[in-house]
Amino acid sequence: MAAVEEPQVLPDTTHDKKTKSRDELEPGYLVICWNDPVNLMKFVTHVFQTVFGWDKQRAEKHMVEVHEQGKSVLTRESLERAEHYVHQLQGYSLHATMEPDK
Amino acid sequence: MKLVRRTDEARVFLLKASELQMLVLVLSQFPLRDQDQQISRFGNDEDLKGAQQLLNEAMADRRKDARRELEAWLKSAGRFTHTAAGEELMVRHGETDWLLQILNNVRVGAWQRLGEPEDLPGAFRSATPESIRYLTVMEMAGGLQSILCFDEQNE
Predict the structure, then answer these.
(1) Is the CB of residue A96 less than 8 Å from the CB of residue A54?
(2) Crossing angle, helix B131-153 and helix B17-28, to 10 degrees?
(3) Per the CB 3.0–4.6 Å rule, which of A38, A82, B22, B34 could disulfide with A77?
(4) pTM score
């Protein structure tokens, strides 16, 4: 068996003092659902359960937030995923928008 | 309209003659809402307008397909069964979300044709012969949605 030689060049062990977080590299987008007078509360709950796979309790919490506060931030996602969710919610005739998370 | 039984595959609702008429009337209005989606990219240039137009065209095609699907669904074997108690409607579990979307399209479309009133009770109080049609369709669609959602969320 051949002897294993010690490497002549050791790994560089200097540290980068400043790193970028994932959020700095890819800003997040908030998916927001807005209140409207026409969509039924039960239907909105159904949509949240279907689109996000939430249980009834979580879906109802956001539905009540929409109803009582006028809007609810449903999730924070990458641009593409946020767009995907907004389109899905709009497909159910809900008033959904997205905006950069500042 | 009430749930009479549930199997592993479907739920069966019993409808009185008047409820069946209501269902048929509401579904005959589909599609009532014209535009469902908006381009969500940020910016304000001609590209966005073009993209929105393409999306609108795609959505219009989708609604035509959905109309055909709905007609086929209504005529499909075993959809309605006449019984002594009334008409039974069979809705497969996988069809509930789709049917709710159809009903919501009609409800929201009727609301849009009423001018998107914020005050719905007020819209009823000041109903005109012209608006009563859409108010009625909107309420009927909502009633059917509530029944489908209520049972689904209490399973």
Answers:
(1) no
(2) 110
(3) A82
(4) 0.81
Topology of the domain comprising A25-100: Ribosomal Protein L30; Chain: A, (3.30.1390)
Query: Among B101, B111, B150, whose Cβ lies nearest the Cβ of A92?
Result: B101
Q: Which of A61, A77, A76, A70 is nearest to A33 (CA)?
A: A70
In this prediction, does ipTM exceed 0.90?
Answer: no
Give the nearest chain A residue to B145 (CA atoms).
A43
The tens digit of pLDDT for each residue in B114-154 reads 999 999 999 999 999 989 999 999 999 999 999 998 767 66
Q: What would the two tokens of residue A1 be? A: 């068996």
* Closest chain A residue by Cα to residue B119: A37
Q: Give CA–CA dist A73/A97, Å, rounded.
A: 10
Cα separation, B91 vs A77, in Å, equals 35
How far does the CA of residue B139 sit from the closest CA of chain A (Å)? 10
B11 touches chain A (CB under 8 A): no
A56 Cβ neighbours under 8 A, 6+ residues apart = A45, A49, B153
Would you list the domain boundaries of chain A? 25-100
- Give the Cα separation of A43 and B8 in Å (integer): 23
Give the distance from CA B106 to its chain's centroid: 5
> Do residues A92 and A81 make contact, with C-beta atoms less than 8 angstroms apart?
no
SS3 state of residue A81 = helix
Q: What residue spans define the domains of chain B?
A: 2-153
